[in-house]
């Protein structure tokens, strides 16, 4: 892997809501083609990191750089145009799908392509059908989200994110809203993307998946990074007592 191709750099990131510190002094980098796994208990700040990187939340302090472009430096944001340009480089897949219920599957995937990227309807639909084929749902293009299983809806949301050709794709616990039997189909799609060297950050409670798919892993608790490193080492042989306690059930 070319370590010079840094896609995300987060330095000393902090986020507070009022007097409550949610994340404190978080730093990490993600390189092109790498999968970063983020694990930890609920409320540890994992999703907040993704929301700060995707501009859904404003940071309280620290710096974020995406594809060499500074989004925020020491808590001060770039101008609006720079923010918009950077936002297009990052895709986010939510845990609850966030599809438009009144749009067909096809329109869910084409709408942003047309209105954000300025693609023609024909070009957007061609891209959408290619992606639906890729996630095994080309036959569902005319259906509405309510007619799909949770796993199918999540695959549509992955296709929608990919349609904008982001440099990096972020997943916020993409299987947590699914029945266990549907989880595998989403993890298979993410594994396929990893094999294609898609740069990704995956917040997940699926420990085996995080261990086997990530190039690097971070364990968070209480808004800080407790331990990080090689996925096999962190998950199978953690050094810190808090990491050991969290992973005790998985490693038993």
Account of the protein in words:
- With 252 residues, the chain is an alpha/beta fold.
- Helix content is 38%, strand content 27%.
- It is built from 9 helices and 11 strands.
- The strands form 2 sheets. It has a 6-stranded mixed sheet with strand order 7-8-9-3-10-11, with helices on both faces.
- The chain is globular.
- The model has no long low-confidence stretch (mean pLDDT 94).
Structural class: alpha/beta
Cross-sheet strand order for the largest sheet:
7-8-9-3-10-11
Note the overall shape: globular
The multimeric state of the shown protein is single chain
How confident overall, as mean pLDDT? 94
Point out poorly predicted stretches: none
Compute the separation of the termini in Å.
Answer: 33 Å
**Total DSSP E strands:** 11
Q: Which strand-content bin applies to the residues?
A: 25-35%
Helix content: 25-40%
Give helix and strand order, one letter per element, not per position. EEEHEEEHEHHHEHEHEEHH
Give a quick set of tags describing it.
about 40% helix, 11 strands, globular, alpha/beta, five-stranded antiparallel beta sheet, about 250 residues, six-stranded mixed beta sheet, 9 helices
Briefly say what this structure is.
By secondary structure, the chain is of the alpha/beta class. 38% of the residues lie in helices and 27% in strands. The strands form 2 sheets. The chain has a 6-stranded mixed β-sheet with strand order 7-8-9-3-10-11, with helices on both faces. The chain has a 5-stranded antiparallel β-sheet with strand order 2-1-4-5-6.
């Amino acid at each position: 892997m070319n370590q010079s191709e840094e896609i995300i750099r987060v330095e000393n990131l902090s986020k507070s809501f009022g007097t409550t510190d949610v994340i404190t002094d978080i730093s990490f980098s993600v390189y092109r083609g790498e999968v970063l796994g983020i694990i930890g208990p609920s409320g540890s700040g994992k999703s907040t990191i993704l929301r700060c990187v995707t501009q859904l939340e404003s940071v309280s302090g620290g710096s974020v750089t995406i594809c060499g472009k500074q989004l925020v430096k020491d808590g001060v944001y770039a101008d609006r145009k720079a923010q918009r340009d950077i936002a297009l480089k990052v895709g986010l897949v939510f845990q609850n799908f966030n599809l438009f219920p009144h749009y067909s599957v096809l329109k869910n995937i084409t709408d942003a392509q047309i209105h954000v990227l300025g693609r023609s309807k024909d070009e957007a639909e061609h891209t959408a059908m290619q992606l639906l084929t890729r996630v095994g749902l080309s036959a569902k293009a005319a259906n509405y989200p309510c007619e799909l299983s949770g796993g199918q809806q999540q695959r549509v949301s992955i296709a929608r994110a990919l349609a904008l050709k982001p440099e990096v794709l972020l997943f916020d616990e993409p299987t947590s809203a699914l029945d266990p039997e549907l989880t595998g189909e989403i993890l298979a799609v993410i594994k396929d993307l990893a094999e294609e060297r898609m740069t990704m950050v995956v917040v997940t409670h699926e420990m085996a998946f995080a261990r086997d798919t990530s190039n690097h892993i971070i364990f968070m608790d209480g808004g800080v990074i407790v331990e990080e490193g090689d996925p096999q080492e962190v998950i199978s042989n953690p050094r810190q007592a808090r990491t050991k306690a969290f992973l005790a059930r998985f490693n038993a």
